[in-house]
Amino acid sequence: MASQPLILDVGCGRNKHPGAIGIDIRPNTAADVVCNLDRPPYPFRDSAFDQVRAIHVIEHVEDVLAVMKELHRITRPGGAITLVTPHYTDFSSFCDPTHRWHLNSFSFRYFGEDHAGFGYYLDRRMLAETRVHVRLLAFWRWLGFEALVNRFPRFRRFWEYYLCYVVRGKAITFEFEVLK
Q1: pLDDT tens-digit readout, 3-46
Q2: Contact at 8 Å (CB) between 54 and 60?
Q3: Is CB count within 10 Å lower at the N or C end of the chain?
Q4: In 3D, which of 44, 88, 33 has the Cα closest to residue 70?
């Protein structure tokens, strides 16, 4: 009989993912462990989790690189990291004063195969991007732009470079496989 995957819900707030271990900075949440994400190391052993979820969290941290390295450390080889964040053209990216980062669908290439051209800051490739899904505002979804952006990587690049200030994004979901 296969055991249940061990899931960590980072920044779980009051809506912890079912069956997950939750961590949050606030004690009055559904967190099982209270810890400050900006103060690694987190209180978990190396490669402890099969899956790590950080839903609307990464835009709040002080140091994205340090947090991503820590999430990598606590996720097993071949495990999954899922991030969701507002797209930088969405109103919600700027209306919350606790958002420190405003990200686009290419923001995490740094951790991938070519390190987005900045590989000299990392000693090895940490993540393989398995999926990027951009959610657009409802009007643009209805017109079919969301399907184009998500189906064709070249169109997504064209959209990010030239169209996203008009055809605005809402949120981005990143899914990664952990490489060790």
Answers
A1: 889 999 999 999 999 999 999 999 999 999 999 999 999 999 99
A2: no
A3: N
A4: 44
